[in-house]
Amino acid sequence: MSATVKKAGEVVCEHPFFRGLEASFCDVICGCAKYSHFQPGEYLFREGAPADQLFLIREGRMALQATGPGRTVTFQTLGQGEIVGVSWLVPPYRWAYDGRAVEFTLAIAMDAACLRGKCEADHDLGYELMKRFMAVLIRRLQSTRLQILDVYGEQA
User: Fold this and answer.
1) Residue 106 is inside which H or E element, if any?
2) 77: β partners
3) Starting from the edge strand earliest in sequence, which strands make up the sheet with 71-79, in order?
4) What is the torsion angle, in degrees rounded to the nearest 10, for the CA atoms of residue 45, residue 64, residue 81 and residue 55?
5) Which residue has the higher pLDDT, 36 or 142?
6) Residue 134 has what pLDDT?
7) For position 80, what pLDDT does the model report?
8) 110: how many CB neighbours lie within 10 A of its CB?
9) Cα–Cα distance between 119 and 43 in angstroms, integer?
10) CA distance 43 to 55
């Protein structure tokens, strides 16, 4: 007997980011999902490109990177159970940094235009998702703050 393969949409609400989301909301957003995978070193997105997806990491790790004159700095590494990409939420919908797979990564890719449309059509859904995204942004901002203090704290 072979195992049943779940559709990407069925996996969405099992992801920690969406866990506990009202079932009717989950049903609505699942139509925006598809399976995706990335090889080590492959870019999920590049700074300045259209931010047209949100990624739910199922397995593997990926790095968020900023590129400056002569160097690239990894400022955060994300793994299983985390989300990647919030630039799809705010106009002009362009990536503010690079996202690159550190190891083989399985993800659910959520179509950004689809999600924005569903949030616009149902403001209760939009508000629920915005609360979840804000919590992620605050955690990541705090993490970046701690990194900066660790690097530059003794120089002050």
Assistant:
1) strand 105-111
2) 63
3) 43-45, 98-101, 61-68, 71-79
4) -10
5) 36
6) 93
7) 96
8) 27
9) 27
10) 12
Q: Please report which helix (H) or strand (E) contains residue 26, including its range.
A: helix 23-29
The CATH classification number of 8-149 equals: 2.60.120.10
Distance separating alpha carbons of residues 87 and 93, to the nearest angstrom: 6
Round to the nearest angstrom and report the end-to-end CA distance of the chain: 64
Question: What is the sign, positive or negative, of the torsion defined by CA atoms of 98, 95, 120, 128?
Answer: positive
What band does 143 get if pLDDT is binned at 50, 70 and 90? confident
* Coil vs helix vs strand at 78: strand
What sign does the CA torsion over 105, 111, 116, 117 have? negative
> Do 11 and 29 contact (CB within 8 A), yes or no?
no
* H or E element, residue 79: strand 71-79
The size of the chain, in residues, is: 156
In angstroms, rounded to a whole number, what is the distance separating the alpha carbons of residues 143 and 148?
Answer: 9
Angle between helices 112-121 and 123-152 (to 10 degrees): 130
Residues pairing with 84 in the sheet: 55
Cβ atoms of 117 and 126 closer than 8 Å: no
